[in-house]
Automatic annotation (TrEMBL):
Keywords: Aminotransferase, Pyridoxal phosphate, Transferase. It holds the Pfam family Aminotran_5. This is Aminotransferase class V. It comes from the Bacteria. InterPro entries: Aminotrans_V_dom (IPR000192), PyrdxlP-dep_Trfase (IPR015424), PyrdxlP-dep_Trfase_major (IPR015421), PyrdxlP-dep_Trfase_small (IPR015422).
Length: 338
């Protein structure tokens, strides 16, 4: 069975070996305040800086999920309220969570701008030049949900103060861990707000990670697997070039090779199209049929999500998916007849 589900998604095959090592070497049984465990955390953070080219002065912490990061941004980094220019289901959900913590008031008073870089639900993305425009026009903090693009695409990290991603998408790992990156300005904002009421208050997380520790018993297996996968992956500029090329191939394939098929791209404007999640639209009956036929052929397509649940399927273009698997899906789609 091969999977193009955009999260949880295919994990790197080496993860099986790494998980076995983590158990055999007793890493999963280490006390999380022990030197051995702190070394794993330290090395993981070093590798994140190195492999993802995160600026040296940006801090990195590990938490449980992207959803938790949405709440951390609202509770620890937003003094007034946040703005959410969104175009899909995840952006909307983030806004709803955030406004439960910091309700919407005068939009002009918002001090935090929340952007979903890659909207997994409909296969759109906010490119770096758009983010640069936000940076120019907005004086507060900018927080970016990069759940389905971090570790797949290269970013200009300086265009935002907070970036986060859970690892079950482009990192090619099992769910239950998220990477939270924050700038010196974000930390300064957290200090000014001084919010320290929660186990996951950013100040408390920061204080713990300064010692390569965590506020609570962390997902030690997940952290170890992240470390091992980061050791194995190439620098982000290389990954980025491959992912963009593959995305261009996918879009050309669907537009040019599948002309007499029931499929069309959900996103018509090429400038808005995601490089890591390709959304393909069709009638409800066609979508249902192709997903079932693909399943029969040993291929899991991504379901649609939110408003596009029944009228799209999604193809993850994540780094862990290999050439042979992409070819297999292309062959299936070329020969599939409704
Ligand atoms: C998957 C996803 C999330 C949610 O991640 P969790 O790990 O379930 O919290 C948030 N935002 C985007 C854009 C996603 O793709």
């Amino acid at each position: 069975m091969i999977t193009f589900y955009p999260g949880p998604s295919k994990v790197y095959p080496q993860v099986a070996q790494y998980a076995q090592e983590a158990v055999q070497q007793g890493i999963v049984s280490l006390n999380h305040r022990s030197v051995g465990f702190m070394d794993v955390v330290k090395e993981t953070i070093r590798l994140l800086h190195e492999k993802l080219a995160i600026p040296a002065d940006y801090h990195v912490a590990l938490v449980s999920s992207a959803t938790e990061c949405w709440e951390i941004v609202a509770q620890s980094l937003t003094a007034t309220t946040s703005l959410h220019p969104y175009g899909g289901a995840f952006g909307k959900k983030w806004m709803e969570y955030a406004h439960r913590i910091k309700p919407m008031i005068e939009p002009g008073l918002a001090d935090t701008l929340c952007v979903v870089q890659n909207e997994t639900s409909n296969g759109t993305q906010v490119r770096m030049d758009t983010l640069a425009g936000f940076r120019r026009d907005f004086t507060g903090l900018i927080a970016v949900d990069a759940v389905s693009s971090m570790a797949g695409l290269a970013f200009d990290w300086t265009l935002a103060d907070v970036w986060f991603a859970s690892v079950q998408k482009c990192f090619g790992l099992p769910a239950g861990l998220a990477v939270l990156v924050y700038s010196p300005d974000a930390l300064k904002r957290a200090e000014i707000i001084g919010e320290n009421d929660h186990y996951n208050s950013l100040l408390f997380i920061h204080e713990n990670f300064a010692k390569f520790q965590t506020p609570y018993t962390p997902n030690g297996l997940g952290i170890y697997l992240l470390m091992r996968v980061l050791e194995q992956v190439p620098p982000i500029t290389e990954v980025d070039a491959r992912i963009r090329q593959q995305a261009a191939d996918w879009y050309a394939f669907i537009e040019q090779e599948l002309t007499d098929s029931p499929w069309k791209l959900l996103i018509q404007d090429p400038a808005l199209r995601s490089d890591t999640v390709i959304a393909v639209a069709g009638s409800e009956a066609d979508i249902k049929a192709v997903k079932a036929a693909a399943q029969q052929a040993g291929i899991t397509l991504g379901n649609g999500y939110g408003d596009w649940k029944t009228t799209t399927f999604r193809i993850a273009n994540f780094p862990a998916i290999d050439e042979e698997e992409r070819e297999q899906l292309k062959t299936f789609l070329r020969t599939y007849r409704a």
